[in-house]
Specification:
alpha/beta, 8-stranded parallel barrel, two-stranded antiparallel ribbon, 15% strand, globular, binds phosphoenolpyruvate, binds manganese (II) ion, 3-deoxy-7-phosphoheptulonate synthase, EC 2.5.1.54, aldehyde-lyase activity, 3-deoxy-7-phosphoheptulonate synthase activity
């Protein structure tokens, strides 16, 4: 069902008042992790001011090291809800365990499946039974075909609201955190009808590469971007190196408008 041949028209996913996969580019922005009330409210305010339509923020963080900050967990979710109340921005956050599915269904607008869980089939099957939009990230060592098969697990259960995300893959290049597979965008568009967005933050691991890769992604046909933004990246508890400051987001949004108009 993810197959373009069975479904020639692009899937448009309605989230609150926004449409993902339509003719507008959508920007999801916010910190890697929710750290405290002041941080999330201030960033939410800024990203809204500069034109982001969704707020991202990790509450449960899947960290490589068990000694790294693991997120504020349910307290983080409460803070995201507060930020939504203040700004009206729908919230996007990662689900790392089905134990919290009910809480997420109640309060999250787009449930993110992280790269590490792309092939967590039991999770995907459960997400197929709900009606919430799912942001499915490509695993760092997964092919586009495997990503589409994972999407299929969700679609097969009856949930047709799947957004795919290219977030960089593992290659021999080590200068960047991952290698952004820009070619995945036209491939996904050819094979599937689902919307695709790009995460230039995790793809590069470097804040100063976020803008050029974001522009390239939109030029290549992506339906939107998910970008890490932090008010104090030097002291961020997670992914500060790849987080842009709000004023940089403002600049990026201006340039994006030009590219979006051109393609
Ligand atoms: C994230 O979005 O914060 C994240 C952990 O991304 P990924 O699953 O792509 O590594
Ligand atoms: Mn991150």
């Amino acid at each position: 069902k993810a197959n373009r041949l069975l479904h020639p028209n692009n899937t448009e996913i309605k989230v609150n008042n926004e449409i993902i996969g339509g003719n507008k580019i959508n920007i999801i922005a916010g910190p890697c992790s929710v750290e405290n009330q002041k941080q999330i409210l201030s960033i939410a305010d800024d990203v809204k001011k500069y034109g982001a339509k969704f707020l991202r923020g990790g509450a449960f963080k899947p960290r490589t090291s068990p000694y790294s900050f693991q997120g504020l967990k349910l307290e983080g979710l409460e803070l995201l809800k507060l930020a939504k109340q203040y700004t009206g921005l729908p919230i996007v956050t990662e689900l790392t365990s089905l134990d919290f599915l009910d809480e997420y269904v109640d309060s999250v607008d787009i449930i993110q499946v992280g790269a590490r869980n792309m092939q967590n089939y039991e999770m995907l099957k459960q997400l197929g039974k709900i009606n919430k939009p799912i942001l499915l990230k490509r695993g760092p060592s997964s092919t586009v075909e495997e990503l589409l098969m994972s999407a299929e697990y969700i679609l097969l259960g009856g949930n047709e609201n799947v957004i795919l995300c290219e977030r960089g893959i593992r290659t021999f290049e080590s200068y960047t955190r991952n290698t952004l597979d820009l070619s995945a965008i036209p491939v996904i568009k050819k094979l599937s009808h689902l919307p695709v967005i790009v995460d230039p933050s995790h793809a590069t691991g470097r804040w100063w590469m976020v803008e050029p890769m974001a522009l390239a992604s939109i030029a290549a046909g992506a339906d939107g971007l998910i970008i890490e933004v932090h008010n104090d990246p030097e002291n961020a508890l997670c992914d500060g190196n790849q987080s842009i400051k709000p004023d940089k987001l403002k600049q990026l949004m201006e340039k994006l408008k030009l590219i979006a108009k051109a393609v």
